[in-house]
Write a structure and sequence with these properties.
With about 250 residues, the chain is α+β, with helices and mostly antiparallel strands. It has helices at about 1-15, 25-40, 65-75, 140-150, 175-185, and strands at about 45-55, 80, 85-90, 90-100, 105-115, 120-130, 160-165, 190-195, 200-205, 215, 220, 220-230, 235-240. About 25% of the residues are buried. Residues about 1-25 have low confidence and may be disordered. It comes from Guptibacillus hwajinpoensis.
Length: about 250
């Protein structure tokens, strides 16, 4: 796997970097670089991109219940502004946000508790969204995400990646052919498709990416969605792995 990442890094740097030597430490980094590279080399602006992880977590028994749990969360992830606790039947959810206006990033942390086997279980969701994309600074954002992730969940917690971009000069573009062109740039195999007049979605399998899902007995780990926003509005592109985790 390390050899594969090294080879892919060299291929990406030919069109992605400004000549600075860059090495990739893990598969998520490779995915971020490849997804950004595909959009940029096909003349899309990148409006935002995000990283997302989730995992079932455990907490030391707290005599103060939810108050104690929130105290422990604040130790793991200080600086979040927490909303009110939402209750639905026996499920409880609370969400906190932390914004960095200078860096143009927003972090969201959501804790969900629910009854399971006569006890309370907890599920933690951590999401970091960055507005715009800088070739020089994207790795700083990724390192910040990794650092916070290590304080919240285990190394084995899966990481989802999502990019959203736009292209304005679309007069002669056929939406499905455009989606196919993007998919071809990933060297991925098509699994499922939705082809409508103003919307196209392709699910695919990228054989070099480890994490995947199974849909209709087929493996997939890449999703591309294009939407025509109307006359003069251009095309919006959303690319996610293993699936798109935002509305599109």
């Amino acid at each position: 796997m390390k050899l594969l990442i090294g080879v892919l890094s060299i291929l990406l740097l030919g069109s992605f970097s400004n000549g600075t030597s860059v090495s990739f430490e893990d598969e998520t980094e490779v995915k971020v670089a490849e997804m950004a590279n595909v959009l940029l080399t096909h003349d899309y602006s990148i409006d935002r991109w995000s990283l997302y992880t989730r995992e079932k977590v455990s907490f030391t028994p707290q005599p103060l219940g939810n108050t104690g749990i929130m105290s422990e969360l604040n130790k793991r992830a200080p600086g979040f502004t927490w909303g009110s606790i939402e209750k639905h039947d026996e499920n409880v959810k609370v969400t906190g946000t932390r914004m960095d206006s200078e860096a143009g990033s927003t972090e969201t942390l959501t804790l969900v508790s629910y009854p399971e086997n006569n006890r309370i279980s907890y599920y933690l969701i951590y999401h970091m969204e960055k507005f715009g994309f800088s070739q020089e600074e994207w790795r700083t954002t990724y390192e910040q995400f990794k650092s916070q992730k290590s304080q919240l969940v285990t190394d084995e917690a899966p990481v989802f990646t999502c990019f959203q971009g736009a292209k304005n000069d679309t007069m002669n573009i056929v939406l499905y052919k455009e989606a196919d062109k993007l998919l071809e740039a990933f060297s991925a195999s098509k699994v499922e498709k939705v082809n409508e007049e103003t919307f196209v979605s392709l699910s695919a399998y990228h054989k070099e990416w480890k994490e995947d899902l199974v849909t209709n007995n087929k493996r997939m780990n890449l999703q591309i969605a294009l939407r025509n926003t109307g006359i003069g509005g251009g095309i919006t592109a959303t690319i996610g792995t293993p699936i798109i985790t935002t509305e599109y």
